[in-house]
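Justification of resources, computational component.

The compute hours requested in this renewal are based largely on the per-chain cost of generating structure records like the one below. Each record pairs the submitted sequence with a full structure-token output. That output is archived, and it is also reused by downstream analysis tasks.
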Amino acid sequence: MREFAQLAVAVLLLKESDRSQLELPSENERRKALAIATSGTGVWDRNVLTGEVHYSSSWKALLGYTNDEIGNDVSEAYTRIHPADFAYVLAVYQEAIDGRTEVFEVEHRLRCRDGSYKWVCSRGKVVECDGAGKPVRMVGTTTDVTTMYTLSEQIQLNAALLTDLTNEVPGMVFQSRRHVHGKYSFSYVSAGALDIYRLSPEQLMQDADMLHLIIHPDDLAAYLSSLEASARDLKPWHLEYRVLLPGEGAAWRQGGARPRQLADGSVLWHGIITDITERKLIEAELQVLASTDSLTQLSNRRHFMRHLECELMRVQRSAGYPAVILMFDLDHFKAINDRWGHSVGDLALQHFSATLRKQLRRTDAAGRMGGEEFAVVLSNACVDEAKIFAQRIQDELAITPVVHGDERLTLAVSVGIACLDSTDISAEASLSRSDKALYCAKRAGRNRIECY
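The structure output for this chain reads:
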């Protein structure tokens, strides 16, 4: 998984002329790399231990730099942060470095090559930790949000000029008001309302409640409560939410606005709504990179252990709720690699993972723990059901060999089974018992099923 994530980020760091020279694993990965590289969003990749930060070409271009004009040391990156924003930005990043959060977002100013400053929104996620759970690598995106801040100033200076400008801005610029009796209204809406909500500015200014029919039902409560909180505390409003567009389906929107209380007690916002559907797709791809084993498309060890922890908590909360963990180890896998090569070994791993996936229920989970070892957690299942599951895997492998040219390679697997126990202090304790059972299966002659 780590190599796969590194490869994806490496593609982003190449110059345009060099991208075609890198051999990506598949056409699918080429599309992922191209989507990130051409989205207009800069991507960065930081090694927490070494202090190295790598930037995509689009990230450098955002500040007016070419590929060779920015170094990779984090200390250099700090010098580009506006002095007034430095302490705040550092505190946000430190929370992630200290392991207090995995995902973070911060808006601040960055110095461009020509000495001017741009407002940017940086979002990041911890994608790799060491054995002690300390973050060692973060990946994220940086987006230019200068337009939003500039437009906020223009609203105060010249309303007529604002109308001309905002109608050309991607998104919907607005002025809205919460009246003292609790009703909301729009006093200004730019032409971008048609792109954002498929409603005209006139429709929204006549009836602001029309938005309630457009916002996704699952997000409407959060939308309304976030506005109420902004009005109550007079703090900036910021929300990512979904809309349901007629004939198009769901799309993502991001809203941001600054509130001001008027003399009569009502609250006035100036803000902008933008389409972030493409960014959400990119973030979803990054999430897959952080949680999936690239070869087998099963969960990687880190993501699987999170699922196992959740299942253990369910066992501990609900008396009598059964759950079982199974450890699988492909027998004689080293001999397969030695005789046929690693490409056939990879085919064997993919064949086994596909066999596992066919047998899983919606509530079950499988992961590659490393090498030729795999794990499965069966929810609401007992040991006897786990034995049946393991036997089905063994039977399926026996009748469906790996096909490589004229060769037919029949796989065998040893299985260790253990119940999740409410007294387990961690998921590792449950996993350890199934691993011991697996060792007994290997020692007893392989291609066996043993229970702890």
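The chain is about 40% helix and 25% strand. The longest strand covers residues 117-129.
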